[in-house]
């Protein structure tokens, strides 16, 4: 059965969305194309009509996941314009976000995997990290652009590290301690 271009484009976008979630849950190498396409409701053969390679999909799914992550930061900030950083902290360093592996921060879920990927995948992550830093830079006070950049880098590093640590321990109290301590330090930095 022949698929229209419009439907093919919708299928492609759907595969990218599904892949962005499944990669965050299983890692780039933790799910094969057959299972990924099955989850998207399509055949493996359809994959090769849409993407040059799995690496191509990994780069596009990474861009999609990171773009969505940046949008969630902006949305959180817009809900509390009087203190956008506090809103971002409350969202990012929450127990709900800690548990949201498929929809959570792709930097946390895939950062170590991305470090071993192609330059195209790394470029997707670099662009996403820069977007996060830009959003943070708009939320913090600083005497100079250099100070704003340094604070943004420190805050993002601290938050990503805390969420990563919270996800890798079994003890819920320890996980909460990582999130709470990071939130406190981020407020001190800002």
UniProtKB/TrEMBL annotation:
Residues 32-51 bind DNA. Gene3D superfamilies: Homeodomain-like (1.10.10.60), Tetracycline Repressor, domain 2 (1.10.357.10). The keyword Glycoprotein does not apply. GO terms for molecular function: DNA binding. Residues 9-69 form the HTH tetR-type domain. It comes from the Bacteria. Pfam families: TetR_N (PF00440). Keywords: DNA-binding, Transcription, Transcription regulation. InterPro entries: Homeodomain-like_sf (IPR009057), HTH_TetR (IPR001647), Tet_transcr_reg_TetR-rel_C_sf (IPR036271). PANTHER family: TRANSCRIPTIONAL REGULATORY PROTEIN. This is TetR family transcriptional regulator. It comes from Thalassospira lucentensis.
């Amino acid at each position: 059965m022949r698929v229209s271009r419009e439907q093919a484009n919708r299928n492609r976008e759907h595969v990218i969305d599904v892949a962005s979630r499944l990669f965050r849950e299983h890692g780039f190498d933790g799910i094969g194309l057959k299972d990924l396409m099955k989850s998207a409701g399509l055949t493996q053969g359809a994959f090769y009509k849409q993407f040059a390679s799995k690496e191509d999909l990994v780069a596009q799914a990474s861009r999609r996941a990171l773009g969505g992550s940046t949008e969630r930061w902006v949305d959180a900030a817009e809900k509390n314009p009087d203190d956008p950083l506090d809103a971002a902290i409350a969202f990012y360093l929450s127990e709900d976000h800690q548990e949201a592996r498929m929809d959570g921060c792709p930097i946390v879920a895939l950062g170590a995997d991305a470090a071993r990927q192609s330059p195209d995948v790394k470029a997707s992550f670099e662009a996403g990290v820069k977007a996060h830093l830009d959003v943070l830079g708009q939320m913090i006070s600083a005497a100079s652009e250099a100070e704003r950049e340094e604070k943004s880098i420190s805050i993002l590093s601290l938050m990503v590290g805390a969420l990563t640590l919270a996800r890798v321990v079994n003890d819920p109290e320890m996980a909460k301690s990582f999130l709470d301590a990071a939130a406190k330090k981020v407020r001190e930095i800002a």
